[in-house]
Write a structure and sequence with these properties.
alpha+beta, NADH Oxidase, five-stranded antiparallel sheet
Length: 197
């Protein structure tokens, strides 16, 4: 197999906008296999500094309504566009996996490494979903950073949302965007006293 063929799971990955994701979504068997494969990330100290929330079925609409109610309860005035966006935020893709970083403070493993491990899990979910033939998108938005929204989702004080991974079947074409080339990304490091080649 060619190098390109071996790297196909990476080179074929692209984001499908969540509004273009619909049914069917992955089966229970596919989700289980996807999660267990995605969890094979670097995890210094074996902390498993992440967990997932599966948001699907009627829970998607319920979460949207809860977000609108939360904003209105604290006195925010939502125009129709903002209200609709929050109501539909999780309504398109059949499955949304919330990736939650569980940070152990003052551990010998730095917090940034724990957070990066959760980010690696999110990226593996994207690659795996595409390898299974689904479309996927990594989103955050205000609910990922809002303490009241985090409480609505049941997060503890040491937890934070890294990503909402939306997964479903693409309902339209996605235009491929330009990607950086090797020459744009890599340069050689040499000590100052080493002559250039």
């Amino acid at each position: 197999m060619s190098i390109e063929g071996k790297l196909k799971p990476l080179t074929a990955r692209h984001s499908t906008p969540s509004r273009l994701l619909g049914a069917p979504g992955p089966t229970e068997e596919e989700v289980r296999a996807l999660v267990e494969a995605a969890a094979r990330v670097s995890d210094h100290g074996r902390l498993q500094p992440w967990r997932l929330l599966a948001i699907h079925g009627e829970a998607r609409g319920a979460l949207g309504r809860a977000l609108v109610a939360l904003r209105e309860a604290r006195g925010e005035v939502l125009d129709e566009a903002a209200r609709s966006k929050d109501l539909q935020r999780f309504a398109h893709a059949p499955l949304v996996l919330a990736v939650i970083a569980r940070i152990t403070p003052e551990h010998k493993i730095p917090e940034v490494e724990q957070l990066l491990s959760a980010g690696a899990l999110a990226q593996n979910l994207l690659i795996g979903a595409c390898a299974l033939g689904y479309g996927a998108q990594w989103l955050t938005g205000w609910p990922a950073y809002d303490s009241q929204a985090q409480r609505t989702l049941g997060l503890e004080a040491n937890e934070r949302i890294v990503a909402f991974i939306h997964i479903g079947t693409p309902q339209g074409e996605v235009v491929e965007r330009d990607r950086p080339r090797y020459e744009q990304l890599v340069c050689d490091w040499r000590p100052a006293d080493m002559p250039a080649i």
